[in-house]
Amino acid sequence: MKKKIILSIAIVLTAVLSMSFFAQEKITIKGSDTMVILSQRWAEKYMGKNADVSIQVTGGGSGTGISALLNGTTDICNSSRPMKKSEIQKLKERFGTMGVEIACAKDGITVYLNPSNSVSNISMDQLKSIYTGKITNWKELGGKDAKIILYSRENNSGTYVYFKDNVLKGQDYTPSCQNLPGTAAVVNAVSKDPNGIGYGGHGYSKGVKMCNINGIEPTEANIGKGKYPISRSLYMYTKSKPTGNVKKFIDWVLSPEGQKLVKEVGYFPL
Asked: What is the CA angle 74-92-88, rounded to 5?
């Protein structure tokens, strides 16, 4: 009899746990590699407070997230660049909506140097010349006589696109530039290469030296006020006006509690 009671209790508990699991609403977030660490922190904190919500965060680049939004395979697209008019038009054609853009944090595209590099400041014109192949030696920037080794993100990255549009002014990257699959990979490469240079989100700058641009340091004050030359917003996109748990999550991200995490990760609150 006692065994039957224990068995019955076990069955009931299993059923309750199963119901609890299946009752969770899943929110998918895809896109910007720059925003992965931030979104993961948001998701962990939010799920800790809301057991009925499961949030899945994946990167791959802003282009990957926008494609997922256009295909209807993500609830939220993370993007480190604004959506293009052509992408918004595709969204309108497929879903009859223009999409919703939500600025959720601020970032400064940081230029990474190896800690041993004596160069500490590069102008915007020099940075353009480096990545278009016109400046190829560190001695041209006041450094040692050594070839500059360039690291970049891949072309599906919003940071890659933003850098090309705003730093290279639409010109192509030099063929000698090595494209890497994520910001962490760029930072890792520069941290090991005395002659390396790379770029990416401010939140990934551990282990490398952050270079001043036009004499301006990439600090919270300079980025927040837009003084740093490569300051930008980070975005969340939804295909239509968010509702339900998606809206609740986004509202929390924009709240003081959510914005506090932005600073903790290494980016800057709105």
From this structure: 75
